[in-house]
Amino acid sequence: MGYPLVTVREARREDADQLAAYLVRFYRVNEEFDPLYALRPDAENRARKLVERYLEDPNSVLLVAEASGRVVGIARGELRDNPLLEASPLGVIVELYVHPSYRRRGVGRMLVEELARRLKERGARALAAEFPYLNEIAVSFYRKLGFRPLTSIYVREAE
Fold first, then answer.
1. Is residue 154 part of a domain?
2. Could you list the residue range(s) of the whole structural domain that residue 89 is in?
3. What is the pLDDT along the chain (159 residues), one digit of tens a residue?
């Protein structure tokens, strides 16, 4: 059985409900790797407002993968500037989620490549990806795309 053609495009306001739902899914998956990703009880409501903010932010790129008029994946990246570094601004993939029925079909790669292209157009000198340390699936995915470890972030709960 074949799959519908998947296209990647810039997110639009009319995608906001689907985008918000996918953001919540993204964080629910990440919660499995670390409890600090646990969602607030009102996460669904907050996600909609967050999507609206991302759509307005000039340093944010929000993309959707679409098949048959339905969103099947999302990716969000942002520019981060450090005036001391030559590789600045840095394009950072902050959220990437593909619906389970579309995984392992190149949709994630399509989203990352388009996000990289758009962030580069906005001035990114390098591309990074953030994800939970224990997410071995993400580690493998990004390594296959040519990413390598650059920094470590260690966290503890506030006392």
1. no
2. 6-144
3. 456 799 999 999 999 999 999 999 999 998 888 888 889 999 999 999 999 999 999 999 999 999 988 999 999 999 999 888 888 899 999 999 999 999 999 999 999 999 999 999 999 999 999 988 888 999 999 999 999 988 888 888 888
- Give the DSSP H or E segment for 145: none
Q: What tokens were used for 107?
A: 């949709």
Name 7's bridge partners: 66
CATH number at residue 53: 3.40.630.30
Q: How many domains does the chain have?
A: 1
Closest CA to 5 of 65, 84, 62: 65
Is residue 41 situated within a structural domain? yes
Q: Is residue 135 part of a domain?
A: yes
CB 62 within 8 A of CB 11: yes
Among residues 55, 92, 86, which one has the least CA distance to residue 47? Answer: 55
